[in-house]
UniProtKB/TrEMBL annotation, chain A:
One term of GO molecular function: DNA binding
Lineage: Bacteria, Bacillati, Bacillota, Bacilli, Bacillales
Protein task: Required for high-level post-exponential phase expression of a series of secreted proteins.
Organism: Paenibacillus cellulosilyticus
Domain named Response regulatory: residues: 3-126
Protein name as annotated: LytTR family two component transcriptional regulator
From TrEMBL, chain B:
Organism: Paenibacillus cellulosilyticus
Example of a GO MF term: identical protein binding
Annotated ranges, domain Sensor histidine kinase NatK-like C-terminal: 327-427
UniProt key word Iron: no
CDD domains: HATPase_AgrC-ComD-like
Protein's name according to its UniProt entry: Two-component system sensor histidine kinase AgrC
UniProt keyword list: Coiled coil, Kinase, Membrane, Transferase, Transmembrane, Transmembrane helix
Entry keyword Transmembrane helix: yes
Stretches assigned to coiled coil: 212-242
Superkingdom: Bacteria
Amino acid sequence: MLEVFICEDDPEQRKQITKYVSDYIMMENLDMKIVVSTDKSEDIIGYLRNNHVTGLYFLDVDIKEDKSGIALGAEIRQYDNQGAIVFVTTHSELTYLTFTYKVEAMDYITKDKFTDIQKRITDCIDTANERYLMNKHRNRKMFQTKSGDKMISVDYSDILFFETSSQLHKIILHATNRQVEFYGKLKDVLEMDSRFYRCHNSYVVNKDNIVEVDMSKREIRMTNGQICYASSRFLKGLKDIVQHTNG
Amino acid sequence: MTFFIASLIQMMTYCLSIPILMKRRIGVGLFLIMLAGSQTIGMALFPLMGAMSSLVILVFLIGCLYYMSRQWLLSITVAVIPMILSIVSDYVINLFALQVFNLSTADIQGGYLLVAAVVGIMLLTFALSYLGRYLFGTMRDHEPFFRRYGVLLTAMVVITLLIFYLNIWIGQQQGYSNENIRANSILFLFYFILLMGVCFILIRVMMKETNLQNKQVQYERLTEYTENLEQLYMDMQKFRHDYINILLTMSEYIRSGDVERLERYFNERIMPISQGMQSNNYKLGALYNVKLQELKGILSSKLIKAQELKIDAVIEVVEPIEQVSMDSVQLCRCLGILLDNAIEEAVQCDKPSVRVAIIKREQSVMIAVTNSCRSNMPELYKIFERGFSTKGNNRGLGLSNLKEIVAKSENATLDTQIMNGEFIQLLEVYDASATKSRMTG
């Protein structure tokens, strides 16, 4: 079950948000429950300390405490790294990226007269629910790795190949529309999925996204036209794979 | 047999000094090719040409290095320096043998003495290589410097080598007399020390100049920022001046109960002011939290430039940023590239926007730069290719340079993605203290 938390210090607005959420849960008959609706961040942290949950959090950015809503979000992350955090704020303009990358917030809702808050809240509930269900029935469509504070997840079908960087222990993941570096070992990456093939000392390729292999140049052309390199030692195995998938 | 071993050790000296100097691994394969090739050439040509065979080996090594690095100047310099170093070491060892053990060159032509001498040369060469790497490394960190003086440097080392070999050749004609060796040794040593001295001073001067230039640029940027702040202050002054009047007028309307005119007055006079408050100048307010002057300078100058190009440019810095664990020159270069790139792309869109955030995370500082991009963006990997640019030739060094800088630094990672019509670049710099723990994360 996805548990919903609300932290908002304006009693009027808190009542409003709580009502929107509970109405929607009832109407759609969702597997969710509001467990905490409060104006004190300590209530949420206290609950998280005692219970292991995956939550959906609606947090006001300007709670009247020492710590801001963003700091609260960061604290929540320590207990619940899967949960969905949604910020409710008056000054979205100036903190959008911070929400996204500081606590990996799912979304934010602006409190102004132009925004249909109810609609935005129900949207957030839907998204969080979808994500929760997908995670629960883990069909492992995402490649996930942790690098420092950062969780990197990429669709397996988007991954082209991995390459070692000139810096030790650093790996560059090449995907369609994304290039990301993380710390790790190529050997560990190789073991994560059967689609991966070691084609070179410093490359691991996703077999599903190979278009063709140029045996003489030892180059592998990927679906987006990018070139990955192979070494003669691993070329033979590659040949078998490509023929197998073509045949 | 002794000759074979001695020769092999000497070739090893060359081949191992090269990676030491270049400060990077060259791969076992290339190393073996270089070793085997130079050994073959040495064995074949030494009986015919004597010491001159080294020049042929040199050409071969330059070829190998060019194959690897695709940079002529670098390959020549890096191949020539070990030769010079080993000649100097050779003569130093010879001189040492002559003075201390009273062994003439003829005595150490064979047997274990030759091997011992060659090993000595090797060790001395390595030591000198490390010294050279220090000098060379400082130079390569200042890339503009290397670009400007690379040719000069290469010419200098090549000429040095030629002079050395000319002397050796003369010595060879005269049959390597002890006097000759001694004279040559002193000459070479002196020349070498002089050369090192000149290089060292040159580097110091250059570094000072670059620093000065950086400071100048920074100063200009900060001036720009100050002007921006002054403008902001003037706006505030104007508003302060106005607002007493505004309040008076409003209280007048309220007193007379004229709600209709109050409303009109509010909509026509006060709303525009509040919109003005959201104008561009105010969007840079968050720069206040950036406590690093260099960073503040480059951010403000680029963002002001973006605003002048009618781009909606916003910066968010929620917490004070006091420290980023990266050399500030490199960091500013990275940021400059990121922002230039974002601005260049954003200008071409219908709704141009650039958004920058500096975010403190648990073990790192993340710099996020996003910009609107055209729907027909080229494939990501093409953007990173050297020489690629959306604006024609000779401009595409940006992102490939960025990637290079990040690749060299051991505690920074780059994440680039195109998502929902936005180009997103995340540069994450890990704190020095977190460098160890991040591996286990």
